Each structure stands twice: as structure tokens, then as C-alpha cells.
Amino acid sequence: MHATTFPEAHECAAIHAAARFHPMTDPDQELPAIEVAGLVTFVYLHAGNRVVRVANHLDTSDPRLRTSEGNLAPDAACRPSQVSVSGR
């Protein structure tokens, strides 16, 4: 099943301009995150494992990124995520 209306280039620009940063306000409850189109990505240092951790939360994504069943579209035109490490 395909996403019905993946945002066009001008809509993507508006979505990017509306991105929000969520700083950590309570160290025992929250982690810093950025939100774009309802997708929330946390990037933080995990002291116990001594690693940088990246966690994507996709359950609040913009409806335009979802199939008619409400799932993120898995087809090549609308991958839920593409990860680059050091620009690759």
C-alpha cells in the first residue's frame, strides 16, 4: 500500500521550517529530541553503554507519510527512514 500524498518539495520546505527542538527539561524523564513532520528523533549519549544513541519514534508521524491503513509506507517512494553516518 502506498502513501496517498507524500509532501511535495514546497511542503517539505515548510515542514522543515516548522521543525521543533525539544530540549531535555527533566533529566530523569526526558531526552533531547528534534521533531519533523511528527517524527521524533532522539540523539543522546548513553553513559552506561558509552555510545551515542539515535532513536526514531515514528508513531506520531504526519498522516501524509502513512498508508490508508495508518502504517508508514514501506515502498521505495516513501521509505520511513534513511540513515547517513558521517555523510554516507
Search tags:
single chain, 88 residues, alpha+beta, 4-stranded antiparallel beta sheet, 1 helix, 25% strand
Provide the structure class: alpha+beta
Q: Kindly state the mean pLDDT as a whole number?
A: 81
Beta-strand level of the residues, as a percent range? Answer: 25-35%
Termini separation: 29 Å
Largest beta sheet: strand ordering = 1-2-3-4
Point out poorly predicted stretches.
none
Oligomer status = single chain
User: Which series of helices and strands comes N to C?
Assistant: HEEEE
- How many H/I helical runs? 1
Number of strands: 4
Described by strand count, sense and barrel closure, the largest sheet is: 4 strands, antiparallel
How many structural domains can be distinguished in the coordinates?
1
Can you characterise this structure?
By secondary structure, the chain is α+β, with helices and mostly antiparallel strands. It has one domain (9-77). Helices cover 10% and strands 25% of the residues. It contains 1 helix and 4 strands; from the N terminus they run H-E-E-E-E. It has one helix at 9-17; strands at residues 20-22, 33-36, 39-46, 51-57. The chain has a 4-stranded antiparallel β-sheet, with no helix packed on it.
